[in-house]
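Notes taken during the Thursday session

The instructor put the following on the board and asked us to keep it in front of us for the whole hour. The protein is L-galactonate transporter. We were told not to look anything up and to reason only from what is written here. First, the residues (509 in total):
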Amino acid sequence: MEKTHTATRPTAAEPDAADTIVPMPPDGALVRSARLKKIQTTAMLLLFLAAIINFLDRSSLSVANSTIRDEMGLSGTEIGLLLSAFSLAYGLAQLPCGPLLDRKGPRIMLGLGMFVWSLFQTLSGMIQNFTQFIWVRIGLGIGEAPMNPCGVKVINDWFNIKQRGMPMGIFNAASTIGLAISPPILTAMMLVFGWRGMFITIGLLGIALSIGWYLLYRNRQDVDLSAQEQSYLNAGSVSARREPMSFKEWRALFRNRTMWGMMIGFSGINYTAWLYLAWLPGYLQTTYHLDLKSTGLLAAIPFLFGAAGMLSNGYVTDFLVRRGMEPVKSRKLCIVSGMLLSAAFTSVVAQATTTSSAVTLIGMALFCIHFAGTSCWGLIHVSVTPRMTASVGSIQNFASFIFASFAPVVTGWILDTTHSFSLALTLCSCFTLVGALSYLLVVKRPITDAADIAGGAPLRRPAAQKESVTLPALRSRRAALGLSHYFTTGAHHENRICRAGRYGPRHGP
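Then, after some discussion, the predicted structure tokens were revealed:
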């Protein structure tokens, strides 16, 4: 990768000395070649379809919840265990998924993962008892693990840092569109083929798409890019070392404050998302005594709200960046505000007295939580050095899905015990609030590279090697990087740093 500007020794918010900072030209100077446009379009179309299939698979058990309970004689807690088995396996599989993705790339990882999860989805239609169902759900979770980290990696590889908000919104919206169309489509398939035929049909579609992904997509390092194409992709980003992360570096991420803030915060988002994904059809049927057809139609509406939240996030974050807000700060603002509003809406769902009011409140909760969740993935794009994005994303997903795996079984147990969803919804809103506070108070520094990973403490030069840096140069460096000194801005912070002697003697007013 061409180095256009070599950074001095990094601050806590700057890249490692082995990295470079690529200056950001004016928006008009960012020119995509026709080939890049084709690559981007192909990648986003395939990601969009994969995400829809992915969430059709995830929704299938939730939509067939009552039918399977009646046919197999399962309790709410047992259905919760089946739903939790998937998310627990999914979360644990994130740990090896990240390093493997950094080494093998999205072409192999998503192609193989899609094939595996679709195979187990097909097997779901052939199970005969609860134990077999548990094992199939575990296999499904392992297969789906690469999906989100691969999406982050693809967008990070093929879009400029200032133009990633919209593709990330589209990618995330695809999952919620998949959720939105799942209830009516899967309900119709169940009425025609039965729940077993529904599982098998969706699985076969996924296998076909996995083959298409492998044949049509190429990893960035496998494409011979021109200098103009490299310039477009790298402008404004940290040009990091190309070699994969070592195990020592990967392990050090677990000692990083920002990493823990992301893990805790995203857990609040995924708990909320997974509770509604797992139990929304069952909630509507149990609380409002709806039939299967009515449930399928009404359950789609809140997920359409969620898709709108994801799409609007892309517009909002890109707008804030164009207006001069730092990319990281714009994501954090969207995350915290979205989570707080989602917690508020979820807390009053149980007080709804009509089906329409309940659907509206749940829809607003999903709009806000998916609006925030899109920025959580966007935050990785702009606050993590590129060679670590997949690992950071997979660790974030690991923690959040381990925690979210309790949502289905806890909700099922509460339903069996209290015959109401009220306590489950209250717990959900509390967890969302804690997640918002984590992003607000714990996520304070970017994750850059090497020695800066562990702890996020400021890196300092030995006294003999300190150099003087003027305030204009410091501001320019921050602007070029797009993530330095993030969440702590203004001349007051710069003056305080210089007075402390970290950059040598203070210059200027």
